[in-house]
Every structure is written in structure tokens, then in C-alpha cells.
Write a structure and sequence with these properties.
Layout: H1 13-23, H2 28-34, H3 39-43, H4 47-55, H5 62-66, E1 78-81, E2 84-87, H6 88-91, E3 95-98, H7 100-107, E4 130-131, E5 136-137, E6 139-143, H8 147-151, H9 153-166, H10 178-188, H11 201-215, H12 231-242, H13 246-257, H14 267-270, H15 274-281, H16 289-302, E7 310-311, E8 314-315, E9 321-323, H17 324-331, H18 335-344, E10 359-361, H19 366-372, H20 378-384, H21 389-397, H22 419-430, E11 434-436, E12 443-445, H23 446-453, H24 457-465, E13 472-475, E14 484-487, H25 488-495, E15 503-504, H26 505-512, H27 517-525, E16 532-535, E17 542-546, H28 548-557, E18 558-559, H29 561-568, H30 572-581, E19 598-599, H31 600-607
Parallel strand pairs: 11-13
Antiparallel strand pairs: 1-2, 3-6, 4-5, 7-8, 9-10, 12-14, 13-14, 15-17, 16-17, 18-19
Helix pairs in contact: 1-2, 11-12, 23-24, 26-27, 29-30
Length: about 600
């Protein structure tokens, strides 16, 4: 006969089973196995594990099941909880949290019966930081890396009884925020109809945290250094704005740009945490697409982005806007003088934003800028493209850069260089460049790569401009020529003095933008693209190489996002979105995973 266990409000299945096991003086895994179930299946919320317990006279109350995560219906690495999907690692972290006051309340009248204390489902949600019943912050109760002992809560709670009853774990209470009450209502199945509720709950909460962290710039100079204990404030800071919708968010983004700093400081400094999370960490998660769209649209309308810059991880292939500052740098005109010229032409207002943020249509102003361009000295030209004088001299010697006027020596002016030529040069080598947050193994500055091969930089530059070298990096820590990085193995392959330009599968994969070489190898093995078995020149072993003919065959049949962007001159993010809308699927015959790979004919038919 089963020992009766009364469930607590919002208790989880794992907690309920652990308490039943404790009543029988066994651990949860043994208790479940004795009833032909599995505690791991119980933790995962599978109906089979729960039904097996019920068949042995241990039914699980419906309310307990309702407040427990389940992988049924979503599977994989996701869990369904209260009608919302969360990554499993989010709801099943090594750190288990709870409200000490709820646990102390469970013990009232129960003595030291550790089976009386229950873990609540909403405590698993990391965005929940406060118990609304007691207004006390949640605290970490224990840490355990293995899921079975982690969720067998009764033994852990038994060891905490003295601390719980003495109040040693209870933190100072605080008043609930708007975010706290809204999130709790959402988990209960209610809402107030605010703008955030049209988005998946986990993504909406994360966005509140991102936006709130950025908004901390109004309060502190180190917004990213906020502690876990203060995250409740940051969530609410972002929530107060985001709940109002897109117009309020855009106003907040503009407000951040009105603080100290300019676009030349980079979006990571203007929008701390938010930019990196949307540009990189969540880039493949469609739940964040709308938040990305708002930031992308705002930046396209207010940032002077040029070739060599990036927008949410994608390279800029054409300049749309200039600022007074960027135009002054491109033309060699003093900013104050240029501002007067642009205002006189009606291109910008006489009184407006600071030079770094005062933007205007680059194409409409092109004629005015060309007419006002001022020739500058070699020293100023080198500084304008951010090249050292020795680097500049090598570019001149190699014929990459030429003065606008012939040199007249000491007898005449030395201001013979057109800064617009420097802009055009940088544009020609940065088209399609990938943003580099750091130069990892294999990436070299172009001057270092040229020195290693004992060639002039003009040799590599011509190969880039001819699109023979396509793996180009734009280092986030630098501007201009200093930011131009190449993948040295690709440079070696393209510029090798050997008659063969064969590439290993790994190198070819990286060159065309297939991040996992195993996918390229799988493509070859399954007969979808050719490779040639040759003797490795150094190892003297036979292995598969991609010859020029093999590479041509690949490009004739397939597009990767990188090669698609280079062929069509558009960002790969916008093109993949267009392909999804048109119903074009990635190449995946028989369900094989080849990554984001498209048939060329499907792409060209849709985009042309």
C-alpha cells in the first residue's frame, strides 16, 4: 500500500517522486526502478515514466505534472513548461534554486520530516528571481552535475533543514517588480496583452535582460559587470521599455546613442550585451528575429556603416549613409567646414546631432563631396587608411596606391593624395569580409601573411580583388588597413608556386564557409560533389583533395551563405530569409546534414 504524500502547489514530478522515495527510505532512482519506471524519464517528464508509477499505485497528481518540464512534443534539447519552450540546459542546470521561506513553511508542523519539503516548478526558470508569496529572493540550495542525484531533492533538503529553520538562507526581502509579476502571470497562463507577449517567453525574458543591460549605461560606466544578485533590476529596466513595443524600444536605442561615444566606438560599446547576443549568440534562433530586426533597422537608419563594417554579424557590402565625421575622413575636409557645406546644400540641418551621428544619404551627397574633396599629404593619407608608414610605402611600391597628382618634390605642394582613393581601396578588399572578434589560429594580418610568403602585399591584394582569395577577416579591434586579416592557409594555397592548387577538404570547407569539414567530407563520400585522391606531398599518404576542377564542380552546383553573398552582392542573412519565405530548403537528401548548403539553381531561380 502506497504511503500517502500530499503535493504542494507548483511542485514538480521529480520532487514529488523524490518525496515518495524518502518516505520509503530509498533514493528516487531505486524507488522508480522498483516500479518499472526510470527517475531520469520522470525528470524528463515522459508520460511512459509517469504512467509506469501510476500502474504500481503511485499516481502523480495532474497539478504536479502541469508544473513540470517535459520533452514530449518538443524533444531534442528543448523542454515544454507551462506552454512555453525552453532549452533543456536552462531548466536543468547544475544549480538548484528555491525559496527558503517556502521550504520552512513546508516544515511547519512536520518536525524534521525532510519528505515534507517540495521543490517548485517555477524555481527552475532562471528568469524567476523572487518568490512572490514571501517577497524573498531565490537562493542556490545545492549544485550537482549529474541529473539523477540533482533532482532527487529530498536528501539534499534534509541536509539543509537546520539552515532553513534558522533562517540562515533567507535573504533580505524586496518588493516585486513589474517584470516579476508579469513573468509569474505568464507562467500561470495569464497576460496583460503587452507587446512582449507576442514573442516566445524565454526569448522575451532574455531580451529584457539584454535591453536592460544596455540601458544601464545611463547609470554606470560598466553595465556588463552587473552581478547575478542585481539581475532582477536589469530585467525590469528592460521590461519597462520593451513591454511598450517597437516605438519605445527605438526611442531607448536612440537615447543610448545620445550618451557619450560614437559609432566609431562600435555597437558593442553603445549596446553592451544586446548587440553581441543578437549578432552572434542567438543568430540562428528565429525566436529572436523580431528583436534583431528592430536593432538592424534602427542601425541602418542612424549609423554610418560602410564596407568593412558589420551589421549584426553580416558584412556591409555598400555604404548607404555617411556621417559628417566619416565623410570628412573620406574626403580630407575639415569637419567644421564640411558641415557648413552640407548644411548650405540642404543635405543636413544647420543645427543637429554631433558630427559622428549626423548622417545623410551617401549617394545623394556624392556630387557635393566630390566637389569639396581636398587633396592631402602622404602622412595624412596613411593615417586615413590606418596603415603604418612602412605599410603605406609597400602599397605604393606595389602599385596598389597612386597619388592623384604627380609628385613635384620640395619645390611644390606635398598634398597630392586623394582620400577618396583610400576609401575605394579599402572597399575593394573588404567586400564580403567576415567580422573577427579575435584573430584565432590561422588568421594573419595581410602584411604578416605577405612577409611569411616573402611576397609584397600587392600580390595578396590583387588575389582578393580578383576574388581568388575569399576568406577575408575584418578585425573588430581595429579600423581600416589594420583590420584586414587573411586566412594564411588559403593564401598559401592560392599563391603557391607549386603547379597544383589542390586543397585539403578541411581548407576548402573553411574557404567556402562550411564550418564543419565533416559535412564537406560527407558530401564527397555520398557522391554529391567530386574530390580527387592524391598523395600528400609531405605525409606521402593518399588522401582526398579538392582540385580546381573539383572546386569548379562544387561551385557550379552549390551555394554556401558566403559564396551566395559574394555572387549576389547581398548579405547572406537577408538572402536566406528570402529563400525561407519562398520555400527553398537547404540541400538535405535523405535527411543528411550538410549544413546551410543550397542548390545553385534553386537560389538563382529565386533571387534573380
Amino acid at each position: 500500500m502506497a504511503i500517502p504524500i500530499h503535493h504542494r502547489r507548483r511542485e514538480t514530478v521529480a520532487s514529488f517522486v523524490s518525496r515518495m522515495a524518502a518516505a520509503y527510505h530509498v533514493d528516487a532512482a531505486t524507488f522508480s526502478a522498483d516500479r518499472e519506471s526510470s527517475f531520469l524519464a520522470v525528470v524528463s517528464g515522459t508520460s511512459s515514466g509517469i504512467e509506469a508509477l501510476a500502474a504500481f499505485g503511485c499516481p502523480i497528481p495532474e497539478d504536479v505534472v502541469a508544473w513540470s518540464p517535459s520533452k514530449e512534443g518538443v524533444g531534442g534539447t528543448m523542454r515544454l513548461f507551462r506552454g512555453h519552450t525552453f532549452p533543456s540546459k536552462i531548466l536543468q542546470p547544475p544549480k538548484m534554486r528555491g525559496c527558503p521561506e517556502c521550504l520552512r513553511q513546508d516544515l511547519e508542523g512536520q518536525g524534521t520530516d525532510h519528505a515534507a519539503m517540495a521543490m517548485r516548478g517555477h524555481w527552475l526558470v532562471p528568469h524567476v528571481t523572487l518568490c512572490l508569496e514571501h517577497n524573498t529572493p531565490l537562493v542556490t540550495l545545492w549544485r550537482e552535475s549529474k541529473p539523477v542525484p540533482r533532482f532527487d531533492s529530498a536528501p539534499h533538503l534534509a541536509s539543509l533543514i537546520p539552515a532553513i529553520t534558522a533562517g540562515n538562507l533567507t535573504l533580505e526581502p524586496r518588493a516585486p517588480t513589474g517584470f516579476d509579476t508579469w513573468l509569474d502571470a505568464r507562467l500561470e497562463g495569464h497576460g496583460d496583452g503587452n507587446w512582449l507577449e507576442q514573442h516566445p517567453l524565454h526569448a522575451a525574458c532574455n531580451y529584457c535582460l539584454m535591453l536592460g543591460t544596455s540601458l544601464l549605461r545611463h547609470i554606470t560606466s560598466a553595465p556588463s559587470a552587473v552581478t547575478d544578485e542585481d539581475k532582477w533590476f536589469v530585467y525590469d529596466l528592460g521590461f519597462r521599455v520593451a513591454q511598450q513595443g517597437e516605438a519605445a524600444i527605438r526611442d531607448a536605442l536612440q537615447g543610448l546613442q545620445n550618451l557619450s561615444g560614437g559609432p566609431h566606438d562600435g555597437p558593442k560599446k553603445i549596446f553592451p550585451k544586446m548587440y553581441d547576443r543578437l549578432a552572434y549568440d542567438t543568430i540562428e534562433n528565429p525566436d529572436y528575429d523580431e528583436f534583431r530586426r528592430i536593432l538592424r533597422s534602427h542601425m541602418m537608419e542612424t549609423w554610418p556603416l560602410g564596407i568593412g563594417d558589420e551589421l549584426l554579424g553580416e558584412p556591409i557590402v555598400e555604404r548607404r549613409l555617411h556621417s559628417v565625421r566619416s565623410a570628412a575622413k573620406a574626403t580630407g575636409i575639415d569637419q567644421r567646414r564640411l558641415r557648413k557645406i552640407l548644411a548650405a546644400e540642404g543635405i543636413i540641418p544647420e543645427e543637429g546631432l554631433p558630427d559622428a551621428w549626423q548622417v545623410f544619404d551617401a549617394k545623394l551627397a556624392d556630387t557635393v563631396l566630390k566637389a569639396a574633396t581636398t587633396l592631402i599629404t602622404a602622412k595624412d593619407f596613411a593615417e586615413g587608411i590606418n596603415a603604418s608608414r612602412s605599410q603605406f610605402n609597400l602599397l605604393v611600391a606595389g602599385g596598389v596606391l597612386e597619388p592623384r597628382l604627380p609628385s613635384v618634390g620640395d619645390a611644390g605642394t606635398k598634398a597630392i593624395w586623394d582620400p577618396a582613393d583610400g576609401v575605394r581601396f579599402l572597399d575593394s578588399v573588404f567586400v564580403g569580409a567576415s567580422p573577427l572578434r579575435q584573430a584565432q589560429h590561422g588568421w594573419e594580418h595581410i602584411s604578416k601573411s605577405a612577409a611569411r610568403l616573402m611576397v609584397g602585399p600587392e600580390v595578396i591584394i590583387k588575389a582578393i580583388q580578383d576574388r581568388r582569395i575569399v576568406r577575408i577577416g575584418n578585425h573588430a579591434d581595429f579600423d581600416g588597413y589594420a583590420a584586414l586579416y587573411v586566412y594564411h592557409d588559403e593564401v598559401c594555397s592560392v599563391l603557391s608556386p607549386e603547379p597544383s592548387s589542390n586543397q585539403s577538404i578541411e581548407l576548402f570547407s573553411k574557404t567556402v564557409g562550411i564550418g564543419q569539414p565533416i559535412r564537406m567530407k560527407r558530401l564527397v563520400i555520398n557522391g554529391h560533389t567530386p574530390a580527387t585522391e592524391l598523395v600528400h606531398p609531405k605525409l606521402k599518404t593518399r588522401q582526398l583533395f579538392i582540385t580546381r576542377n573539383d572546386a569548379d564542380a562544387f561551385h557550379q552546383r552549390f551555394y554556401t551563405p558566403r559564396t551566395m553573398a559574394q555572387a549576389h552582392g547581398k548579405s547572406w542573412q537577408s538572402m536566406t530569409a528570402t529563400l525561407r519565405a519562398a520555400g527553398v530548403k537547404v540541400f538535405s537528401p535523405d535527411g543528411e546534414d550538410y549544413g546551410t548548403l543550397y542548390l545553385r539553381e534553386d537560389v538563382d531561380r529565386t533571387l534573380l
